[in-house]
Amino acid sequence: MAVDQLPPPCRRVLVINPNTSTTLTDSFQPILSALQLSQNVQLSYWTCPPGGPAMIKSQADMHDSAALCLPLLLRLAPDFDGFLAACYADHPVVRLLQSQVGSKPVVCIFHASIYAALQLAGPSSTAQFGIITTAPVYEALLSSAVDMILRSNKQALARFGGVAASGIGLADLRLDHLGKLRQAEAAREKVIAATQDMLRSRQDVQILCMGGVILAGMEPWVHEACKAEGRPEVQVLDQLAAGMLTLDALLGDTPLQTVNYGQALSRWIASLHLGPASFHDRVIIFGWQFIDVAHGFAWMIVGSCSASTATLEPSLCPAPHCLADRPLHMATVAPRLRDLRPCDNCRQRKIRCLFASDDAVNCVLCQSRSTTCTYVREPPRKKRAVVSKDQNHDKASSTSPRARHHPPASQSISSAAGVTKPRRKPNNDAQSSVLRDYSQLPGQSLLKETLGHQNRQSSAVVGATADFDICLTKTLSWDERGAFAGFRAPQVLRRANATTHFFLRPDTQEEMDAELANLDAIENFVAPHGPELVKIYFRIVHPTFPILHKNVFLEKHGRSYRELTPIGLGAVYVLAMNWWSYSQALSSIPKPDATELEARVLRMLVDVHRRPKISDLQGGLVLMQSPNVDSWAMTGHLVAMAQNLGINADCTDWQVPDWERGVRKRVAWALFMQDKWGALVYGRGSHIRSDDWDVTPLQSTDFPETAKDDDNEEGSAEIEKGKLTFLHMVSLTQIVSEILDNFFTLKAVRNPRTLQSVLEIAKPLQLQLKAWHASMPPSLSLDETVPMKLSSVGYLHLAYYTAEITLHRAILRCHNTTPSTPPYGQVEETTLRSITRRAADARFVSAVGFVKRLKAEHFQSFWYFSSSVSLAIIGTFATILCSITPSRAEKEVYVAKLAEYRWLLRLSANSAPFMQYAIGVLDACGQLLDEQLGALKEGTQQHVVVTGHGDDEPAFLPAGGDLSDGGEDVGDENDTLDDDAFATFLMDENMLISPREGGGDWFQDRLQDFDYGDVSSMYRTSTT
After folding, report:
1. Which residue, 94, 285, 486, 892, shows the most beta carbons closer than 10 Å to its own?
2. What molecular functions are annotated in GO for this chain (predicted)?
3. Strands 82-85 and 10-17
4. Number of C-alpha atoms within 13 angstroms, CB side, residue 732?
5. Is the peptide bond before 490 cis (omega within 30 degrees of 0)?
6. What are phi and psi of 210, to 5 degrees?
């Protein structure tokens, strides 16, 4: 008797869209439902609710998304057997959700596409895989994520060919007011150019992953580029299909080696031969649909309809027979004529040089890459018939109607060199005369009476022991500005007050020419994005680091960038490029090489000491905040420049405008902070002596901007909060200066003190720190964040904990010296040491608690230059505590705390790259502790081992405890800086210890199937 076979159980899968776009979620359905799955799968779709990011564009977006999505997903988790995270990024919600759902698989399409690409490549070949993505910001994000996942397996990592950003954005796919698909060809050119760049730079790339769901449907362009490059065999992988096929196998306990990832490969190449009709049934992502235009392609908006029911609009789509004679380009993109040579970029890529309109200055390719068409390279050699000059002339005069819109031959062709010139409009700004004296400016201007902000002259204060004495000025006749021009011509003697005089020296013509050349080079490096970068700087950096005068800078820049100095202009551009993706106008455009520009500006800063200007000093201080600039010597350079400019003097009664007085004071205290914090983090002696510093304290009136000047654009910083942060940082720095003077000069370090004497000196400093902390207004709390606003208060809190730790380092230094006869008895000495150790431990725990409380609004904001080293100093402090602790058990506890602190930094480093330095320092500290205690893993059988993502990094957590044990906050009892709930949730021990049986992450477990070598866990947790 036959037995009826039971149907396979239905597996319930939740497809997660971690952003708020429901249209995007709808678009997943036709792709996933078309797959042939081995399991009986029921798909449900979930979209991040309002309040989350509309699109994932940065690490900050991912953290915001995870914070909102995770609690909601955990409520739904019992109803599902598996989860597919549909985000092409290393989204934190994946590992956080996996740690809570036990053995239920959680698959990210990003990880799945990498796995599928590796399996398709196979371990025995040399084939590589690459990723074609959208905005340039994803190049670094995705490259870093792939490196983090594969870095422990060099063979697998060697298969990664890199990421190429196309620069595609929704703006490229819109209709113009006439209903023409004006940008479609530009979008196609971007995808083709990115693919060609990838194939040319990586000859071994055989698999291309489509890295972003917005790119779905653009596979034909990728295939077109592959064919044009003579690489038709290159395969194109869809990330959604790869993710679903992987999850399907994990649900059925099917070996991943048997998965047919061929289903995830693009089959568009076959569709190209079926004609336009084959596209009528194909539905594309984001409510867009594809139309074949005689093997060229155009995008068409059909609204935000459901992807499962969307159909082509017949009124917008010509009949197939009408498309047969269409050219490859779109009607709105005019081709270059044969008699007009292509620009250098198009010639290098061997593609047609197309212009969007007759009036366009740059071709479509150069516009998409934010570059300028150039025509300086020689054409390739080719055989052609000899043509007389008369024939050439006849040919040139018999062009098509488009030729009437081109510049005349005298503007297009260089008769001397025979090279076509760029189709650029002349830069009237560059040809204009340079204004030397702002007192001659017509109309209203802040600059008419300025002393230090003149355009083309430098100033130098007259020193008390120099070759000129101010007593010789008593009989001079000063003009209304306090100037006397009849001495040491062409210099001008300027009287600031009765005791302070300056020599003003005009720049020579050679110096002006060199400076203008540098300005042009800097502007051309970022052109045409200079104004947008200035806007970013004053939105994000300036509110918290207000050493420029916004209106003065904008007045100069508004007339011409040539009115600024190269260092002042370049530094603003360099720092603003750190927030390139925070501009809607720039986020989809390739970013220039900020490192190269930074190196250029640094070289200029070194050369400017002969004739510095205040704007050069301002630019130098701004540049020193760049994460890549690391130079104590440059701090000394800036201090010397400031002394030359009289910045360290009291300007209260100077004959200068009020706004300039405020600028000088803000710059002076910024320099003071740069010197003192530089001395702390570099371990050097301060350049500034207290008896040579005569700057009055800052007042609110020294800051011209108010809350009314706040920029309402998303991602800006608050002016009032930034002003308070700057003021409190200055007052904290004054306390730090006293700590350094009392405990860390060469003489203080050389002459050891008793613990009791150190405590007597430290007590008033500790009281000052306590009073400073108590005076902090609630608005500077870490919890006081405003939606869609960045907050830089994080660096202020970090500086406070660094100051506390620095003071306690001076106290703990006495633990390394044992007096033969303690003045108050051996028992009292032992007790005092125990008390100071506990107090120091409390500071360390509080500092780590602060790092836990940081939010995305803090990570993405401006951080002071000392922040990276300050984080490292916190770790170093833990190693000091470990080294002076007599008990081995306590030493092991500090090893555990140090490892957890390192793990915390690793979790945050993707959102805050400046934390990477501290991680490296902690690695070195771990080696030192290893030498002291033996192998770190020895004797840790009762500890839980937590492995970090990316490489083997054991972290030892005391069983049943975390860093919140054994210490209290150093602040007052009414301290309002409570832990952020989500940050605490992320770092809770239960979140780090995954209950999943089998102790494995599917990606790393199955990666060993390829015989790529031993693979460390990415998110795996285990106990030993």
Report:
1. 94
2. amino-acid racemase activity; DNA binding; DNA-binding transcription factor activity, RNA polymerase II-specific; zinc ion binding
3. parallel
4. 26
5. yes
6. -80, 110
